[in-house]
Amino acid sequence: MPDFSDSQLFELAMGLEASEQQFIWVVRKGKNEKEEEDWLPKGFEKRMEGKGLIIRGWAPQVLILDHEAVGGFATHCGWNSTLEGEASGVPMVTWPMASEQFYNEKLITQVLKIGISVGAQQWTRVVDGIKREAIEKAMRQILVGEEAARTKALGEMARRGVEGG
What we know:
This protein is α/β, with parallel strands linked by helices. It has one domain: Glycogen Phosphorylase B (Rossmann fold). Helices cover about 45% and strands about 15% of the residues. It has 7 helices and 7 strands; from the N terminus they run E-H-E-H-E-H-E-H-E-H-E-E-H-H. It has helices at about 5-20, 45, 60-65, 80-90, 100-110, 130-145, 145-160; strands spanning about 5, 25, 50-55, 75, 90-95, 115, 125. It has a 3-stranded parallel β-sheet, sandwiched between helices. A two-stranded parallel ribbon has the order 1-7. Helix 1 (about 5-20) crosses helix 6 (about 130-145) and helix 4 (about 80-90) crosses helix 7 (about 145-160). The radius of gyration is 16 Å and the shape is globular. GO terms for molecular function: UDP-glucosyltransferase activity. Keywords: Glycosyltransferase, Transferase.
């Protein structure tokens, strides 16, 4: 799994803040990462109190996605996450990093039209280069675009498909 560079995490934080949207951000530390969080903008967590939550480590993704308050999902476009986002009926901000994720992004954004890309273009081991403006734009657009209605309809179909009887 690719790692995010400190500068990319910083840009992500700044994009989230600039989007003025509420968020839950799950950050998993790699084995070789130091305890200090140099990537976190000074005062970020204080400024985001009541607006954003950073979860360090593992989080129950399906449980979170199924919550009625969740309006969008930023995903690396792995197949499981793609299915979980679609089945939960939440539109996606796509950020593929490796292998089939770029094909899954095309399915999400161009075929099903239930997501918006941040603009990742190439397979990488260290994720870097996506600017805060692209993150902010995608985060704002995903909640007001037609992707939200389309994804909700797909989520309803998915739920009906697994109902008893």
